[in-house]
Amino acid sequence: MLKGKDIINTAQFSPQELNLIMNTAANFEKQVKDENIIRNMEGQVVATLFFEPSTRTRLSFETAANRLGARVITVANPASSSVAKGESLADTIRTVDGYADVIVMRHPMKGSAQIAADNAEHPFINAGDGAGQHPTQALLDIYTIRKEKGILGGHTVAFVGDLKNGRTVHSLGYFMALYRNKMIFVSPKALRMPEDISADLRSRGAEIEETEDLKKALSVSDIVYVTRIQRERFEDPAEYEKLKGSYIINRALIDQAKKGITILHPLPRVDEISTDVDEYEGAAYFRQAHNGLYIRMALLALVSGRV
């Protein structure tokens, strides 16, 4: 179903494909926890090209490839690649495509994923393209919601923080709409969800509320998805300083929230979730990060036709 396909954005998936990805991830999770030796991608090469800093996404993709028996070639610093010499993205991808069976890339430019996919003959996976999309994060997010809540639909989900620049919420919004969840967008006016995304989600039948009142949103939400204010997306440092710390979730606030609320965060966090929340039973953000391994194993195996 996914053999040979590129993974560019979350709008591309059918419900059947999402079920396949999550069920494949669950199977790999069991195999990893049972300490099985997995050889689905033995003899294959995965290229990971990260032109922006990353810990979880890069390491989980590389761990996923290694767990599957593949070998990894990587660019983890643009200064160490020919991009620093002025090579175009298209030329870089055409070159790497001759070395690898799957290409994974993170790049600071919105739209770079499509450029890369257009210039690669092998499957391409978008690991984040600027303020555009981060589909593999959204896939691990819904896998986490399924594990934490049992079902994917019928929830009220609050998205909190930098919704303007947050590619994770841009991606996840489409899945939340697909599974008929109500969404509450909580942000300062300067960091609201882009209107084109909100309008597109509404056109797909999504119920959306926008507010600056975090406490009220938490009182009615089953899930809160927290994002950091992204310093690297601001051209004016003074604007970042003004907006950082706009919303901070601490234990006192969670104790007043809807009972059983689940807290998600794509990480890294700065100060938007206090460490006193970490011991709360519904604080799922580190479990969420670990789920990225299994989702990325599933994607690599599926697009390479090795499952």
3D structure, described in words:
The protein is of the alpha/beta class and 307 residues long. The chain has 2 domains: 10-133 and 291-303, Rossmann fold; 135-289, 3-Layer(aba) Sandwich (Rossmann fold). The protein has helices at residues 15-33, 56-67, 89-96, 112-118, 135-149, 167-178, 195-203, 214-220, 237-243, 251-255, 285-303, and strands at 45-50, 71-75, 102-107, 124-129, 156-160, 182-186, 208-211, 223-226, 262-264. A 5-stranded parallel beta sheet has the order 7-6-5-8-9, sandwiched between helices. It has a 4-stranded parallel beta sheet with strand order 2-1-3-4, sandwiched between helices. Helix 2 (56-67) packs across helix 11 (285-303), helix 3 crosses helix 4 and helix 5 (135-149) crosses helix 6. It is globular. The model has no long low-confidence stretch (mean pLDDT 93).
Q: Gyration radius, to the nearest Å?
A: 19 Å
Low-confidence stretches: none
State the helix count.
11
**How many domain units?**
2
Q: Element order, helices and strands?
A: HEHEHEHEHEHEHEHEHHEH
**How is the main sheet built?**
5 strands, parallel
Q: Considering DSSP H and I runs of 4 or more, what fraction of the residues is helical?
A: 25-40%
Number of strands: 9
CATH class of the largest domain: Alpha Beta
Going by CATH, the architecture of the largest domain would be 3-Layer(aba) Sandwich
Name the CATH superfamily classification of the largest domain: Aspartate/ornithine carbamoyltransferase
Q: How many angstroms does the end-to-end distance come to?
A: 11 Å
Report the portion of residues in β strands: 5-15%
Mean of residue pLDDT?
93
The shape, in one word, is: globular
